[in-house]
Amino acid sequence: MTAGVSFAARLSFEGISHSYASGAETLRDVSLAAEPGEVLCLLGPSGSGKTTLLRIAAGIETQNAGRIRLNDRVIAGPGVFLPPEQRSIGLVFQDFALFPHLTILDNVRFGLTALSPSEARREAMIALERVGLETYASAYPHVLSGGEQQRVALARALAPRPAVLLMDEPFSGLDSRLKDAVRAETLDILRQSRATAIVVTHDAEEAMRMGDRIALLKDGRLVQTGTAEDLYRNPSDPFVAGFFSELNEFTGRVVSGAVETPLGRFPAPDLTEGEEAIVAVRLSGFQVNQQGGTIPARLASRRFLGVVEHLELAVPGADRHVRARVRCGTLAPGARDIWIDVVPADVLVFARHSFETSGESA
Ligand code: ADP
Ligand code: MG
């Protein structure tokens, strides 16, 4: 028997810490919940602990501290460990390997060992219909495209009707042309199945496209959780800001409530007088003009990227080039000395105290 949940469930992590036998801490006091029916994206750079957190939820790995709850029931915690097959949690691995020598139906049936053969067959067909591949039931995986194989892996994970589905970088093996389409299909299927899902990715744009909410991990710690818009507009620190957009960074002290930079003075209402601050300006945060403007700049390089062009600008007082992205055609082909204006909404001011700069500094 499984936990017996076939409707959307809430999966919560409470104070999860973990380290592998080899030593270093991989997760530190992570508390996070995926709400019923929600698609929660777990985002973070490589090595931040995303896969480890999924493995703990699935019961393949055990935490050193903390609890995992499915609805109100503790499924892993001090003195409690529900084995993977009883958790009602499905897992789609990064490489979603299908068995090449089994038919597509048998691949999907694989995890349905608790059912009679005829029931297993029926449930597997229902899962294949859900992903639109029922006509391929008796074919073998090699006849399918990469995107279709990914859908079979999704059907295999959905077949036991898990309450929660965990997907570990499910699109990373697909080429970029396929990715958008498969991502959209997967999202549709997740919505229809009404399962609660946690989707792992290291790609901020993918997280923004898929997630109802995003949880950002860094070095095993949860840095910020919220909607894509929350994290983009109100990042809690320069790391979060730098994950969602490329930045020019300047440092300076707060004097009379503002920080002086080569791009102008920016208000820092939440910071203490005299405190060191980081001012981050998104590459999209510039208006450029050849006739006039606030700050003079000289074009050091420009690169055509289609819709936009990437500029490197020498600005008086800045010890590195300021980088900007502007619409192609804004500047004449031979432009050299220009003017720039900074868009206030694209400027973020942080207290420096405990943060290192993200390495993207200008
Ligand atoms: P992510 O999925 O975000 O890339 P992981 O959870 O795979 O991160 O890894 C987190 C950290 O744990 C990394 O430093 C990684 O090297 C380490 N790690 C992962 N798996 C193991 C393992 N089986 N044994 C020891 N260390 C591991
Ligand atoms: Mg991983």
What would you note in describing this structure?
It is a single chain. The protein is α+β, with helices and mostly antiparallel strands and 362 residues long. It has two domains: 11-233, P-loop containing nucleotide triphosphate hydrolases (Rossmann fold, 3-Layer(aba) Sandwich); 243-351, no CATH class. It is 22% helix and 35% strand. The chain is built from eight helices and 21 strands. A six-stranded mixed β-sheet has the order 7-8-9-3-10-11, with helices on both faces. A five-stranded antiparallel β-sheet has the order 2-1-4-5-6, covered by helices on one side. Helix 3 (117-130) crosses helix 4 and helix 4 (146-158) packs parallel to helix 5 (176-193). The longest helix has 18 residues, at 176-193. The chain is globular, with a radius of gyration of 25 Å. Residues 1-5 and 357-362 have low confidence and may be disordered. Bound molecules: adenosine-5'-diphosphate and magnesium ion. Residues 50-51, 168 line the site of magnesium ion. Adenosine-5'-diphosphate binds next to helix 1.
CATH 4th-level superfamily of the largest domain: P-loop containing nucleotide triphosphate hydrolases
Number of strands: 21
Taken together, the total number of domains comes to 2
What average pLDDT do the residues reach? 92
Question: What is the number of helical segments per DSSP (H or I, 4+ residues)?
Answer: 8
Query: What structural class do the secondary elements suggest?
Result: alpha+beta
Determine and state the CATH class of the largest domain: Alpha Beta
Helical content stands at 10-25%
pLDDT < 50 runs, ≥5 residues: 1-5, 357-362
Order of helices and strands: EEEHEEEEHHHEHEHEEHHEEEEEEEEEE
- Return the CATH architecture of the largest domain: 3-Layer(aba) Sandwich
Instruction: Give me the CATH fold name of the largest domain.
Output: Rossmann fold
User: How do the strands of the widest beta sheet line up side by side?
Assistant: 7-8-9-3-10-11
What Rg, in angstroms, do the CA atoms define? 25 Å
The coarse overall form would be globular
Keywords: ATP-binding, Cell membrane, Ion transport, Iron, Iron transport, Membrane, Nucleotide-binding, Transport
GO biological process, one term: quaternary ammonium group transport
Protein name: ABC transporter
Pfam family, one: ABC_tran
